[in-house]
Design goal:
Helix content: 25-40%
Order of helices and strands: HEEHHHHEEHEHHEEEEHEE
Bound molecules: zinc ion
Number of strands: 11
Distance between the termini: 81 Å
Radius of gyration: 21 Å
C-alpha cells in the first residue's frame, strides 16, 4: 500500500528531531513535577532548572539528568547570569591547575561581562597584592584580591540560596520548602582558608557535620557537595573547584534561624520568589 511508504510508525520506528525530543521529555518531567520548588509550593512550574547549574560543566555535559527541578517563569528568570558569576568566581580561585578548555573560559567570561557587568568588574578590577603561597608543594605568587561586597549581595548569595531550594527538593523526593522556612548562606573563599578562618565553626553550628552524606561529585570541574537533612534543620556544603566553599543552612523554624544576627538569611514566597530577609534591628 502506497501510504506505508510515508508512515514509519507502523514499523515501530520514527525520526524525531533533537529539539522535539527535548520538548517531549520536558513535558513529561513537568507533568510529574507540576509545582515550582523555588517559591513556596503554590505556583505552577513551566520551566526546568538544573542543580548544579549546567554552566559548571564543560560543554554543559551534566553528570546525571536527575538534577532537574521544576521552576516557574519568574524563578527561572535571571538564573543564567547568577550561574555564570558563581562559576567564574569559583574558577578564578582555583589554585590547582586544571585543564580547562580556553573556549569554555572565554565563553564564561563573555557571559559574565554581558549578563553581569558589575560582577565582572568586581572580579576583574578589585585591588590586589601579591602573596607567596605554597600549593601542592610549590611556592608561587598569588594575587590576594579585595572583592566588592556587591558581588555577594547581588549575585553569589542569591545564587547559593537558589541552590538550597533546588537541592532540598532533590534530596527530599519533591518536598518544597515553605515560605516560613529560612535559608542561611555563607561563602568561604580560599582566602578564608589561607587566613585560617576555618569553616569548622560554621559547620559545627549547623550540627551533624560528621554525618554529611556525599552528594554529586564531578571530577572534571570539581563541583561537589555534602548534605544532611533532619526534621528541624538541614545543611548543604558545596565545594567549588576545591577552592571556595558555600555553607547552606536550612531552618524550618524561622525563630531558630534568627538566633545568629550575622547570618545572611533568605526566604521565599509566591509574590516575590527567593529574597533576602532583612535582619531584625
Ligand atoms: Zn517559582
Amino acid at each position: 500500500m502506497e501510504w506505508r511508504k510515508f508512515c514509519w510508525v507502523n514499523e515501530r520506528r520514527l525520526f524525531v528531531g533533537e529539539a522535539k525530543k527535548k520538548v517531549l521529555s520536558n513535558k513529561i518531567f513537568l507533568d510529574e513535577h507540576p509545582i515550582c520548588c523555588l517559591c513556596g509550593g503554590t505556583v505552577a512550574a513551566t520551566t526546568i532548572e538544573h542543580a548544579p547549574p549546567k554552566v559548571f560543566f564543560v560543554n554543559k555535559v551534566v553528570p546525571a539528568a536527575t538534577h532537574r527541578v521544576p521552576a516557574c517563569e519568574r524563578c527561572n528568570n535571571g538564573s543564567s547570569g547568577m550561574d555564570q558569576v558563581a562559576a567564574l568566581f569559583a574558577l578564578t580561585q582555583a589554585t590547582v591547575h586544571r585543564d580547562i578548555p580556553e573556549t569554555y573560559m572565554d565563553k564564561l567570561m563573555r557571559g559574565v561581562r554581558n549578563n553581569a557587568p558589575t560582577a565582572f568588574a568586581a572580579i576583574a578590577n578589585g585591588p590586589a597584592e601579591l602573596v607567596p603561597l605554597r600549593v601542592e608543594g610549590k611556592v608561587d605568587d598569588y594575587a590576594r584580591m579585595e572583592v566588592d561586597v556587591l558581588i555577594f549581595n547581588d549575585w553569589l548569595n542569591p545564587w547559593a540560596a537558589k541552590q538550597a531550594y533546588a537541592l532540598y527538593y532533590l534530596h527530599t523526593d519533591g518536598d518544597i520548602l515553605s515560605p516560613s522556612s529560612r535559608v542561611m548562606v555563607q561563602w568561604v573563599t580560599n582566602a578564608h582558608v589561607v587566613d585560617e578562618q576555618s569553616p569548622d565553626e560554621l559547620l559545627r553550628a549547623l550540627g551533624n557535620y560528621g554525618d554529611l552524606r556525599q552528594g554529586v561529585r564531578n571530577s572534571e570541574l570539581q563541583y561537589s557537595y555534602k548534605w544532611q537533612l533532619d526534621e528541624e534543620i538541614g545543611c548543604f556544603v558545596l565545594m567549588l573547584h576545591d577552592a571556595s566553599m558555600v555553607m547552606i543552612g536550612i531552618f524550618h523554624d524561622p525563630e531558630k534561624a534568627a538566633q545568629v544576627p550575622e547570618w545572611t538569611l533568605f526566604a521565599t514566597n509566591a509574590e516575590n520568589g527567593i529574597h533576602q530577609v532583612q535582619p531584625k534591628v
